[in-house]
Amino acid sequence: MQSAFEGQPAGFGRRIAGDRFAAPAVRAALARALEGARPVFWLFVASRLALLAIGLMTHIFILPFTAKANGLHLAKHAALNMWGAWDSGWYVSLASAGYQSKVGPEGYVNWVFFPAYPMLSAGLAKLAHMPVFLAMLVVSNLCFLVALLLVRRLARAEFDERTADLTVALLCAVPGSYIFSSAYTESLFLLALTACLLLLRSRRWLAAGAFAALAVLTRNIGMGLVLPFAVLAAPRLWQLGRQVARDAPGARGRFLREALRVAAGLALPVLALTGFAVFLYFKSGDPLAFVTAQKGWGRTFGDPFSRPLIYLLKPRALADNNDLVSFAFVWLSLGLLAALGLMRKWPLFVLATFLALVPLSTGITSYQRYCLVMIPLFMAGAKLLAERPAWATATALTALAALNGFMMVAWSLGLGVTA
């Protein structure tokens, strides 16, 4: 009987047979990658639709009766325009016209904003022939959805299944979660940060360094990823170093290869920040313009604990500066940081410490928004909730979602609740 593969090129039959076996393997790999994706997808869709409905109802039923309104008009339709406020205008300007060469009349300058998000949005806008602002909303929402999938995998690896699901739920319900769907950098930063942490767990140093570099080019605080990188790499290099000391066969080569990969991975975020500093030097004459220009926004570095303590003694100043929500998040983040330390998750703890204290050293304003990307603290909070009765967990999530909806009303009116 003639073979079915007779007359075909050599190896054709083996390729066909291999493809038959490969297809189930590919499907299995895809299934593993998307494991738990369904609840993540529905949480994403439900939370975004709820926020959209709240924003539209604010526009229809509240806006006509108040003098407050979003000062930015980045889109003609309210369903889109509500997702752009405050710093969104800077990002749209960056994506459209690039960095300024001179300081503006009010002392503001766009050098404080990093390039990854506006550049990625500008590229998509050009590729898809869409307005830059719309491209930003697409980038933000896609990044948030992918970030949620990665967050679930990371939380499950660090803790357990229930904690993973609750971490995703917290990110969707937390007050200020609408920022993840707005023209802001939080979604892209969350994606880069979580991807880096996942890759560090599997010792893929170069890939982790690439995502750390992306995080740095999204927000300078991404340099904090160097800390868990070092904490996780040091034991591995120590282990290989001991093998070299024992003259184990091939140990020296393994040590050198691993050390080179670690060094290259660590170098990538440093090079990213250095490259941006060099660009700013030729653009503005100041390589640290992203720091010094913060004075235009009234931000200066100082003791991270002094301002929260001052507000405890002077609550009137807290109300005058509209920082009540951020003030609450300061103490909540510090409490969760202590809980994370008690859990002895040291790589996450050092990163969370950096993410919590560095922004706090410049002031309380906008701190609640900065908290949105502190994923180690979200996992710590989810772990604490996972150990509570179901009714307590449901009550906490409902309360957070209700506050998030209330803040969405204020956001839609252009109030500075999450500026």
Kindly provide the radius of gyration, computed on alpha-carbon positions and rounded to a whole number of angstroms. Answer: 24 Å
Q: H/E series, N to C? A: HHHHHHHHHHHHHHHHHHH
Quote the beta fraction. Answer: under 5%
Helicity range of the residues?
A: 55-70%
Reported for the largest beta sheet, the result is:
none
Structural class: mainly alpha
Low-confidence stretches: 1-8, 12-17
Q: What's the total helix number?
A: 19
- State the end-to-end distance: 76 Å
What average pLDDT do the residues reach? 86
Q: What's the number of extended β-strand segments?
A: 0
Please tell me what the overall shape is: globular
Written account of the structure:
The longest helix has 34 residues, at 251-284. The radius of gyration is 24 Å and the shape is globular. The protein is mostly helical and 419 residues long. Residues 1-8 and 12-17 have low confidence and may be disordered. It has helices at 12-33, 37-62, 78-81, 88-97, 116-128, 132-158, 161-173, 186-201, 205-218, 226-245, 251-284, 289-292, 306-313, 315-320, 324-342, 346-360, 367-370, 375-386, 390-412. The protein starts with 11 loop residues before the first helix and ends in a 7-residue tail after the last helix.
List the helices and strands and how they pair.
Layout: H1 12-33, H2 37-62, H3 78-81, H4 88-97, H5 116-128, H6 132-158, H7 161-173, H8 186-201, H9 205-218, H10 226-245, H11 251-284, H12 289-292, H13 306-313, H14 315-320, H15 324-342, H16 346-360, H17 367-370, H18 375-386, H19 390-412
Helix pairs in contact: 2-6, 2-7, 2-19, 4-5, 5-6, 6-7, 6-8, 7-18, 7-19, 8-9, 9-11, 10-11, 10-16, 15-16, 15-18
